[in-house]
Design brief:
The chain has 271 residues and is α/β, with parallel strands linked by helices. The protein has helices at 16-49, 106-111, 139-143, 145-166, 168-173, 202-205, 215-224; strands spanning 59-64, 78-83, 90-95, 115-122, 125-133, 181-187, 195-201, 209-213, 261-264, 268-270. The protein has one domain (58-270). It has an 8-stranded mixed sheet with strand order 1-3-2-4-5-6-7-9. A two-stranded antiparallel sheet has the order 8-10. The protein starts with 15 loop residues before the first helix and ends with a strand. Keywords: Chloroplast, Plastid, Transit peptide. Residues 54-205 form the Staygreen protein domain.
Length: 271
């Protein structure tokens, strides 16, 4: 029986050129994965320093004892806005008083990222007063007061858009409310961040901002916009007679004293 002899055969898929191409392909995939992981690691930074975007689909609105037919100059109207880090959804309660049930629980007391607001009529003019808690209460908030102030300023246009979108029927029935000035109260045990800022009319205050202010616009605004002060005696031009938000007691009529700063943001540049 004869023996079969065969020369060394190299399959086409194992040719040197194919091996080289396969090596190149694997290196390319490896580098692509590294780049993908690197880009993923930058996502939190992009979300922190990127533009704030309002998504109506993530907003849940609760109407508690109010309707769009009652003008806030006659019936008290407040906003309580909270955020869930788990679902990334916003919950807005529109009621006559602050919805304290949204603010319960250890997590909310730890984070203190809620925003509350109330409509006020002061000497016949309507204005929206927004309150944010920067620091105080526990040391963790004090350690990151500067960052919290930055984040609140960055996210406030989203907050105001949530107010406008959630209470859209009221603003459609009373479009003049869009001209009302927005006053933002930052509450902090650190004087630098314990301040009141005017963000201009509601129709402009909810627009995105780069955070850069023109000095001439700021000076012009500070001359035109003065913090409203209610009458000391019982009157019909101020409503409600007392603030519906307990926090606001820290900002009394003498807000220029006791380390409380009153400023005006002026007309912020559009991004």
């Amino acid at each position: 029986m004869g023996s079969l002899s065969a020369g060394p055969l190299l399959p086409s898929e194992l040719k040197p050129s194919s091996l080289f191409n396969e090596q190149q392909r694997s290196v390319f995939v490896y580098r692509t994965r590294r780049k993908a992981k690197k880009s993923q690691s930058l996502n939190p930074v992009a979300r922190l320093f990127g533009p704030a975007i309002f998504e109506a689909s993530k907003l849940q609105v609760l109407f508690l004892g109010v309707d769009a037919k009652k003008h806030p100059g006659k019936l008290p109207r407040t906003y309580t806005l909270t955020h869930s880090d788990v679902t990334s959804k916003l919950t807005l309660a529109i009621s006559q008083t602050i919805n304290n049930s949204q603010l319960q629980g250890w997590y909310n007391r730890l984070q203190r990222d809620e925003v509350v607001a109330e409509w006020k009529k002061v000497k016949g003019k309507m204005s929206l007063h927004v309150h944010c808690h920067i620091s105080g209460g526990h040391f963790l908030l004090d350690l990151c007061a500067r960052l919290r102030y930055y984040i609140f300023c960055k996210e406030l246009p989203v907050v105001l858009k949530a107010f406008v979108h959630g209470d859209g029927n009221l603003l459609n029935n009373y479009p003049e409310l869009q001209e009302s000035l927005v006053w933002v109260y930052f509450h902090s045990n650190i004087p630098e961040f314990n301040k009141v800022e005017c963000w201009g009319p509601l129709k402009d205050a909810d627009s995105p901002s780069s955070g850069v202010q023109k000095e001439n616009n700021k000076n012009q605004a500070s001359n035109c916009w003065e913090m409203p002060k209610t009458c000391q005696q019982t009157c019909s031009c101020c409503f409600p007679p007392m603030s519906l938000i307990p926090w606001s007691q820290a900002f009394s009529s003498d807000s220029h004293n006791n380390g409380i700063n009153t400023q005006s943001r002026g007309l912020r540049q559009q991004s």
